[in-house]
């Protein structure tokens, strides 16, 4: 990344290296045999303040080399979902076959204390093969709550900030992954007929924070001391373990 790009605000930098998916795939005929396709539901970040606030958040995926721990420019699930229910979005993302890492969150609600975050301290990577529909399940991004009082949400900071100078210090996001269930966003009929694969999510993928801004592990504080190479089928019911991915 150039020095000029490094000086961009984080949200702009995210979009520079990871453009959002431009065109929604509308039929099975548009899916190419030489490409892989990621199917993922992204739920909004929820905050309890004067009711429940829901913030739509983008997810950044990047090609990843586990040996060199390098990422390349990827894509962001943010626009043109194939289906949605309120602020829950279902994306179908065309990618090149290979190893991909969940690189972070983007287009988050920084004014509400949910910051764009690089998961460079430790994330999941997985394989996507040519011709496969890869079901990644449901992603649940959330604020990584902190003991710092400046990061705590309250009505004065939210409503009185512009008048009194109060604001919420953003905290990094974290994310959980679960299998798709009956109450989730329905998969379109033309896509539901295709056989999907459930990848092994291998934990511990680290990489440089070329985005600037906040960093975290994908599982936040829970990942402290967690062994790299653990693998599980997180998008399958009961999260069955897989053979070690061998970081």
What does this structure look like?
The chain is mainly beta and 247 residues long. The chain has helices at residues 3-6, 10-17, 155-164, 189-192, and strands at 36-42, 45-48, 52-55, 58-65, 70-71, 75-77, 83-85, 88-95, 98-106, 117-128, 133-143, 173-178, 196-197, 201-205, 214-217, 231-232. The chain has one domain (3-21, 30-232). Strand 4 and strand 5 form a beta hairpin. The longest helix is centred in the middle third of the chain and has 10 residues, at 155-164.
Fraction of residues in helix: 10-25%
Unreliable parts? 1-17
Radius of gyration: 18 Å
Count every beta strand, where a strand is a DSSP E run of 2 or more residues: 16
The separation of the N and C termini measures 26 Å
Overall domain count: 1
- Overall form: globular
Largest sheet: 8 strands, mixed
**Strand content range:** 35-45%
**For the residues shown, what is the average pLDDT?**
81
> What's the number of helices?
4
SSE ordering: HHEEEEEEEEEEEHEHEEEE
Supply the helix-strand structural class.
mainly beta
